[in-house]
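ok trying again, last paste got cut off:
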Amino acid sequence: MTCLDTGLETPTGGRVARARPLLEGGTFALTYADGVADIDLTALLGFHAAEGAAATMTVVRPENPWGVAEIDGDRVRGFAEKPPLDCWVNGGFFVMEPRALDSIGPEHVLEREPLEALAGAGELAAYRHAGFWDCMDTYKDTLLLNELWAQGRAPWRPLVEATP
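nice, full thing came through this time. structure:
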């Protein structure tokens, strides 16, 4: 593992661009490091290799943080408590080939220009992860994830404990 100081104000894509000399040797994995998941990395790598795209983005269907009103016409007929979203979102776990680096510049935000360019060129595969995924964007997220860990209910915990 190598720690690379990319600067406090560098955007996400710029951080990857600055790491380019370390990443050009072959397939590499990338994450924002603010998400937690029980992704089967062997399956993710296998999917990426089979797809042949320059990059693979893990997509997830997060739990909606609100209860949803089920409406029929102008009447509420019931409620669904925090159902998963109907759409897939960027889960923040990637596998890339060195050629993907050509789309990532020093001033880029990874999820903007680089991923949009790769998608537009048909070079961004989507690995659908249906297991546990959550992000740590807010204090509330931190409390939830720490509570799961403390209670021994963290779905990613067996993965951490299995690491030598």
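cool. Helices lie at 12-18, 20-23, 41-51, 113-120, 139-150, 157-162. The two ends are 14 Å apart (CA to CA).
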